[in-house]
Amino acid sequence: MAHPSDSKFSGNVSASAGASGVVPTGDARSGKTGRTRPFTLPGCSAIITGASSGLGAEFARQLRLTASTLVLAARSGDALEKLKAELGNGQLQVHVVACDLSTDAGRAALWEKVSTLPTPPNLLINNAGLGDYGEFMAAPEARIHSQIDLNITALTMLTHEFVARTQATEDRPSAVINISSLASTTPVPDLAVYAATKSYVSSLTEGLAIELESRHIRLLAVCPGPTPTNFGKNARREADKDIDRSGQDLLTVPPQRVVSSALHSLEAGHRRMFPGKRVALAAFLFEKMPRWMMRGILTARYRRAMSKS
Fold first, then answer.
1. Which of 22, 31, 71, 149 has the fewest CB atoms within 10 Å, i.e. is most exposed?
2. 106-128 burial, b if ≥16 CB within 10 A, otherwise e?
3. 200-225: buried (b, 16+ CB within 10 Å) or exposed (e) per residue?
4. Cα separation of 210 and 218, whole Å?
5. Can you tell me whether residue 168 is helix, strand or coil?
């Protein structure tokens, strides 16, 4: 899963989706405050992490015609340079930073590049993330550390530094998009650490959305379900040993739609969104289902998967 507020779910799912197919939940339905102007994409200057592939690269492609500047960060310098060449349109300024954002040195390298820009960026897209399929006790400690360092520490510290640097005003708000997951709404055996890190991402985002509103900074947590990216490969997924994930094809949303929905939700002033009607419905059920019932379902699926391995 390349994965996953407080008001009641819209009874008419189709009607709530709108033309873009976005199905917001919680604050995305009722969280507009009117105190800060909507964030607008034209002319924005954006930092995109994990930009070498997947959702990160798609964010860059979709911002190509509206942004003035893109700062792309990822570990693969070659992939970033290839994307930069693809994005070139003569007007868009594209800067690439090959760095490991899970380290202090990697984040420092990114901010060193940002410091050379004439104006601090006003959009941060925290897309870089790492998963790890498999039993918790079979996971190498380094793999566990990597998930926490990238999914939690890097995202938190990048957000903190961005807020300190950005020059948000009432007329020109800034924004942060944090890529969370449908997995943030429920425990996930065999993906337990990843799901827990995404719960952190969603909680942090919604808390800071309230706290930073007075600074004219908007925050959005994007919570996709399964998405066709390199996530499964990077998470060392083993199909013959994986937990039972039957039915997930029904929740799959392509990267292009995830990104377009996210950008639409940002401009609409939402604080959390689930791309796709079925993903939004699944999130609603996961969050409203009694915990004892959810535990029973997860336990049965896990035992069934273990009996087949």
1. 149
2. bbebbeebbeeeeebbbbbbbbb
3. bbbebbbebbeebbeebbbbbbbbbb
4. 9
5. coil
Nearest one of 197, 143, 186, 147 to 302, comparing CA atoms: 186
pLDDT reported for residue 38: 87
pLDDT of residue 27: 46
- Cβ(49)–Cβ(121) below 8 Å: no
C-beta separation of 133 from 186 below 8 A: no
Number of domains the chain is built from: 1
Cβ-Cβ contacts under 8 Å for 281 (sequence gap 6 or more): 9, 13, 23
In a domain, 1, yes or no: no
- Give, as one character, the DSSP assignment of residue 183: G
- Two tokens at 235? 């998470």
Whole-model pTM: value is 0.84
**Domain that includes residue 298, residue range:** 13-308
Q: Are 49 and 128 in contact (CB under 8 A)?
A: yes
Q: Which two tokens stand for residue 110?
A: 């990114």
CA distance 125 to 61: 13
Encoded amino acid at 114, one letter: V
Domain membership flag for residue 244? yes
Which pLDDT score, from 0 to 100, does residue 24 have?
53
The pLDDT value given to residue 297: 84
Q: What is the CATH number of the domain that holds 289?
A: 3.40.50.720
